[in-house]
Every structure is written in structure tokens, then in C-alpha cells.
Please model this.
Amino acid sequence: MTKTRVAVLISGRGSNMKALIDAAKAPTYPAEIVLVVSNMPGAGGLAAAAAENIRTVTINHKTFGAGADARRGFEAALTTALNGARADLVCLAGFMRLLSADFVGGWRGRLINIHPSLLPAFKGLDAHAEMLRAGVKIAGCTVHFVSAEMDAGPIIGQAAVPVFDGDTPDSLAARILAEEHRLYPECVRRIAAGDILLDGEGMVRISGAQASGALLNPPPIPTETTPPR
Ligand code: GRF
Model:
């Protein structure tokens, strides 16, 4: 089996990166993690990747100055690293830099991200607190193809969790993160297996198994059943 070569881009602790690395350890998993790139020197995820013998590169965006030229320089270095690793698929996992339309266009259909809300609701940085402020009763996470607009690209997969009374942004984030760690490797698996197709209209088509059933919150209260006569 030829495995899909995956590069993961991080800026921080890299728990989603670790979930991808762990999933890829299974011999039948159709993707392998060939490179981890961080724009932040000392990001926690770098050590975690190195401990798994995965090649890591730090491309510190600050060394490229500021403005459009700086972004071009940063993205050129990123492209060199990704091409050097012969990456087929790039997974953003807590990567805190916006990528230019040019860069994103060059990776169309091969650049994905995970976001801690059920997109298109609650884009941006403060999703957990905003969900609590809005009073939603079901939250979740989304894996999507990256487009030039932040958190707006074609949706690949989603996982839902209930929101409980008394949740804080941290407690909700932890519940969602546990599902991120399940959803991201599954989406990468499906992409590598060829189950995910980005059509000409920018919609994702999924072949193969899809979910059944629903999450209700509050859940239906079981009613007494009349014993059979
Ligand atoms: C995750 O919540 C992800 O959805 C968001 O950034 C966070 C990264 O966490 N994009 P980690 O670095 O993967 O632990």
C-alpha cells in the first residue's frame, strides 16, 4: 500500500498532531506523518513529534520581518520544507498563521484544518466562549479544506458534543478536544483512502459509510413501557 504522505503544521502543544501520529502507527492506516512544521520555536508539539522520530522543522515567521514580503518569504520556506518532504497532504493542527490565497490555492484539495466548533458557526479564535455566550446546547468540531477565508472552506467532517449547564470555556474545550482527536485521524484516513472528493462547486462528497442516529440535548426522557399482556 502506498501511503499518503502527511505534513502537520503546528504552533503549540500539538495534541491533534499527536493523535494523527498515533493513528498512523497502525499498519493498515493509509497515511504516514512525514514532517511536522512549527512557526513557533519551542512549541510543545515539536518535542512530542521528535520523541516519535518524526522529522521536525521550525520556520519562525518573525525572522522574515513584517508585511506582504515577510509572508511571501515565510510561505516560500514552508513550500520548500513541504516539497522536500514530498508531502501529499498538509494538516493544520493549531497552526496560528493565516496563509495567503496564493499558498492556499497551490494546495487546493490537499490542505485541511481542524476547528473547535460546528462550522460555519463560531469561526475564529474565541469559539468556546462564544458558544457558551450563545447558549448552544450542542457544540463540536469540524475538519475542513482550507480556503483563503479563515474557517470557511468546504466541510469534510464534524463531531458533536453536548454542552452542559455549568460548562466553562475550558471544560467545553476539553470535551470537544477529545472528539477532535477522533475526528481528525478519521478524516485523514478517508482522504487517504480516496473517500473524500472536493467537487467543482467546492462541495465535499463522501463515499463509504456515514453516521446514523442523532445527538439530542436535552435527551428524551425514557417513558414507562406498558408491560405486555
Ligand atoms: C484545537 O482546539 C484545534 O481545533 C484548534 O487549535 C487547537 C489546537 O490544539 N485549531 P492542539 O495544539 O492540537 O492541542
